[in-house]
Amino acid sequence: MNCPWCEFEGRPRELHAHLGETHPEQVVFEERIGRTFYGITCPCCDDGYRHEIKPRGRDAGFVEEFNAQIRLVAFDMLVNHLLVEHDPEAASVAEPEDAEVGAPAPQATGGPAWLMEARRKAAEDGDAGPQT
Over the range 83-101, which residues count as b (16 or more CB within 10 Å of their CB) and which as e? Predict the structure, then answer.
């Protein structure tokens, strides 16, 4: 994938990290009606994404303390948008090695896959493991 603001090229995960390190100013923070929002606009098509920072969005210290993480969330939305809207072929094959291959599917009463896997490993080791 190519960075929409410079010559960087890399896999989606690498692009995500690059955006956060090199282009943090592309994520904007806005105050409206006593609430704080973050947003980013796609430079390819001008589609914008805006989202309220909640529930602590009214706390200026929260936004200051976590602005890097909030920016990464916005860049995650942008990378997904770029994949789906501007490079659909890449989206279908994006980083297949990162998929959870072999992870058990969650069961209706068993909980999420990560918990089921932890229980399975604990059972194999003879440990009580995580309980619900």
Answer: beebeeeeeeebeeeeeee
Pairwise CA distance, residues 39 & 45, whole Å: 15
Non-local (6+) Cβ contacts of 29 within 8 A are: 36, 37, 38, 63, 67, 70
* pTM of this prediction exceeds 0.85: no
Quote the CA–CA distance of 31 and 91 in Å, as a whole number: 34
C-alpha 19, offset from chain centre: 13
Give the tokens for residue 122.
């604990």
Residue given tokens 């992870």 in the structure block: 103
Q: From first to last of its 132 residues, what are the pLDDT tens digits of the chain? A: 899 999 999 999 999 999 999 999 999 999 888 788 999 999 999 999 999 987 665 676 888 888 899 999 999 999 999 988 887 665 555 554 444 444 444 444 455 566 666 667 767 766 544 444
Extract the tokens encoding 58: 């009214």
